[in-house]
Amino acid sequence: MIERLDYVSINGPAIASMAKAKKDMPSINEKLRAIIEIRISQINGCSYCVDLHTTEARTAGEFQQRLDCLTVWREVPFFDDAEKAALAWAEAVTLISDRGAPQSLFDALGEHYSEKQIVDLTLIISQMNAWNRLAIGFGHLPDPRG
Question: What's the pTM value of the predicted model, to 2 decimals?
Answer without folding.
Answer: 0.95
